[in-house]
Description:
Order of helices and strands: EEEEEEEEEEEH
Strand content: 35-45%
Shape: globular
Low-confidence stretches: none
Strand order of the largest sheet: 1-11-10-7-3-4
Number of helices: 1
Structural class: mainly beta
Largest sheet: 6 strands, antiparallel
Radius of gyration: 15 Å
Amino acid sequence: MSIVSRGLTKVEVRLRWNPSPLGQVPRHLDIIAGTYAEADSWGQPVYVTHSDSRSPDGTITMTRHSQTGQGFGFVEAMVLELDRLATDYSRVVVGVAIHQKGVSRTFADMSNVGVVVVEGYRELFSDDFGAVAGSTAATVAEFVRDESGAWEMRAMIRGFDSDPAAFATEMGRTQQ
């Protein structure tokens, strides 16, 4: 994992994928963020933010959500206002999960799938999930506070074989 940037304030995670071919079950991906307490930064998240929720303090929100992909670029987006997070939180892990609605799918089964992390107009990271093609979910990035309290991002592409609910609880744990 490499450190991409220091002193991040407000970042956006964007996700794209093409819709299912006509007659197939819709392809649905979700961005998920887990926020971890300073006292237990590798345990369970204090809260999880996704398409059906927002952080209790409003610092992590979904600004765009798609249940089918549209093929028109980045159709789902989550904003993380890191500079507004309480000092009790030292880590935020962001990932992507594929909904398994009657059909088991991995990233290899998706068309034109990709993720990008930006701060303003500056691209911090992008990926096409090729390294985790056989997975049903993957972490994308980890945001951590350094000793001075400034936020930095580490790219963290790591695959999981989980549904969205299970992934949300296990995505921040250390790799076994």
